[in-house]
Amino acid sequence: MKKVLIITYYWPPAGGPGVQRWLKFVKYLPDFGVQPIVYIPENPTYPIIDTELLSEVSEKTIIIRQKIMEPYQWASFFSKNKTKKISSGIIPNQKKQSFLEKTLLWIRGNLFVPDARVLWVKPSVSYLEKYIQEHQIDTVITSGPPHSLHLIGLELKQKLNITWFADFRDPWTTIGYHKALKLSTSASKKHKNLEHQVLNSADIILVTSNTTKKEFEALTSKPIEVITNGFDIEKTGRQTLDEKFSMAHIGSFLSERNPTILWKCLAELIEENPSFATNFQLKLIGAVSQEVLDTIEEFSLSKYVNNLGYVSHNEAIAHQKKSQVLLLIEINSEETKSIIPGKLFEYMVSERPIIAIGPEGSDFAEIIKNTNTGVFVKYDETEKLKAVILNYYSHYLEGKLQSHAVGLQQYSRRNLTEKLANLLKK
Q1: What is the model's pTM?
Q2: pLDDT in tens, 342-360
């Protein structure tokens, strides 16, 4: 059986979307003749914890750990709450940032390049260099963000000339929050240089979208493979649908994702349609920024909100299956066209229709269209959005609201892992 060393930061009991991709790959790799050895931090600072995910770690997985030193551990001395939000990706609106938040962002962006886990690079290389040689491992995979992990792969490649796969769950210098880090000219240049080194040293680059592939093709001639995220067989089973016309957003609701177009449409529908006002409910599941909650209040929608906060992955899946409509919101920006939220694939197998709002040309718009799982709306299509909501509401009243998906099997975690395994064994 081929041995593969996988270097990842996010691993159970970490919660949130970052953990799912490699947890599921590792689950199925042994079925295709690959022995996964997973290298993770011993004492990480995870912003979200989901202990239920520990039960999903395959017994066939070898796990090795080393201690990590993280600045978030020190920064929490000043403000645990603000540090936790920043480490989880919830960056306050620039106009509303406190002096402490601005300071933490500047430190994070300029003193720790490429990210706050950079102090783990040297001790990891030192430990893994010996481990790889002792256990005769010839293939290493690094998964980012955090992109510091790619620097571990870079040094191991230079020292041992192993085969190296660099997996980008998200882009590097074009990711949405990059501009919010208050980077100096030198820090920005360093990011670009490190990105260039990684992209031109890895043997194979893995990405999750076609847009990221095109972006990276301008920076390297190395082979780039698209392996999207996907869905797995879940334990939750069928669920009884909510009695209310529930529209659910599941996952982190960042300040930049604040969809004024949606709040405007909902406020108008509530005012114009007494039946809609009686039946409507907005479910928010996951971390929600204060800016989003404030805007919801401005549109007089707060009394319709059921804010459940963070729940376990299994509970989130249950809510996906019982909610009437699922909301997928992406930042209205050129940089976010390549982002395909991992929850999209779980949404698609829930049999609930999706309303997706994002920038024109979004990769996930094509997936939704091709699988017949919902409707994509651009940020300037107010009337279209209103009509879609009314159409779904009409079907809800008739008891006929359901999605009729096609072609989903290509996105099953097992099929995606087979594609990965074939690359690893070439």
Answers
A1: 0.87
A2: 899 999 999 999 999 999 9
